[in-house]
Amino acid sequence: MKKQHYNKTPKYLPKYLTKEEIDAVLDKANHDTNKHGRRNYLMLLTLWRTGMRVSDLVGLKKGEIKEDTIIAREGKGHKDRVIPIGFDLRALLLTYADTMNKDSIIFKIQRRQVNNIIKKYNPKIHAHTFRHSFAVHYLKSGGNIRALQKILGHSSLNTTQIYLDLVGTDIVDDYNKIVW
Question: pTM for the full model?
Fold first, then answer.
């Protein structure tokens, strides 16, 4: 029996930014003198440091920020999940939300506005670029793929494994830099 050969469609690899590229966007937002500059910086920093979806960000309530985690409520698929958060980001978020009660939404903004804000600082990226960048940076820093799956809220490990391909691409690029 003759084996059939199928032309495989190339796998879509998400676009991501290096830490230096993310830092450049954050620096622009941090130095924005616009009345919403501080909010914008904090939103972008939160996307970068947590890998959360825009829907999680715009629905984030002050009371969902715990000691070392954020509880993302009713995310994609109406599932709650726990997202680790560093002490410094936690402090910035709570300082920003200082006068709000625990049920207040921190960033009073609509989902579609988030990408418009990002375009202000870098017209070539969108909010999900921060999520992809977080995932790649997490894995490059030695993070566990299973833990990343939980942080990102993927129901299947196969969905998360796409980021391993991105990290693998970087390995080849690094290898090709070697002078033999």
Answer: 0.85
CB within 8 Å of 70: residues ≥ 6 apart: 50, 52, 60, 64, 82, 83, 85
Structural contact between residues 73 and 86, judged by C-beta atoms closer than 8 angstroms: no
**CA nearest to 44, candidates 99, 107, 137:** 107
Active-site residue set? 53, 76, 128, 131, 154, 163
As a whole number of angstroms, the distance between CA 91 and CA 97 comes to 10
Domain spans in the chain, listed from the N-terminal domain onward: 19-176
pLDDT in tens, 44-88: 999 999 999 999 999 999 999 999 999 988 767 678 899 999 999
Q: Is 106 helix (H, G, I), strand (E, B) or coil?
A: coil
DSSP secondary-structure letter at 62? Answer: G
Structure tokens at 3: 């084996």
* CATH number assigned to the domain with residue range 19-176, chosen from the 4 options 3.30.9.10, 3.30.70.2740, 1.10.443.10, 3.20.20.30: 1.10.443.10
